[in-house]
Amino acid sequence: MSETQRATQVYIREVSASDSPALSRICLLTADTGQSAELLHDFGELPGLVYAEPYAHLPAAFGFVMVDPVKGDEVVGYVLGAYDTRAFEQQASEAWYPRVRAKYPYPPADPTRPLKDADKRYIEILHNPHRAAPVAVAFSPAHLHIDILAEYQRQGWGRRLIGRAVEYLKEERGLSRLWLGLDPKNVGAKKFYERLGFEEIKEAPPGTMGLRFENLV
User: Fold this and answer.
1) Domains in the chain: how many in total?
2) Residue 105 forms part of a structural domain
3) How many Cβ atoms from other residues are within 10 Å of residue 74's Cβ?
4) Residue 183 lies in a domain
């Protein structure tokens, strides 16, 4: 089967809690500026515990996944977000982080086993979660993350996933904008978002980009 034929069979559906393992895997495989971060971690689930899995479990979140039926309905990409960022942060603080902190105490329970820098950084985030910049939330209460496995990139799926998120936020939540944060070093990702109509949000932290839905290309 050709790449084009397989691409026509991939479909998008709403995320579910049972997708957590797949979300975690995709997050790890794209966590190093779009590349695999497997070699940076001894605990490969950590990136997903921060940036992927909570969105499949918390009420203020939403998400859609790409599914490849040729691979046994494997999840191969996602767009995840929150329609109310502040509510999501509160829910994560109360219902998500306490559970995962129990598995990853900080400082580490075993001081004889040094942590890799990337593991240490994510464990610190679990114990001191980031809060979205006020200027970003003022632009829109909604934010999102998107990740797609390498073999499915550059086939239009990023645009389709974001389009599905926009459709949801507009029709189900009555919103007209969203924002996201990206690694400023990821030049390719920034160009991709700019092509879709995203613009940098003035006075926001570097890498914060916003989309007015009428500008989506």
Assistant:
1) 1
2) no
3) 15
4) yes
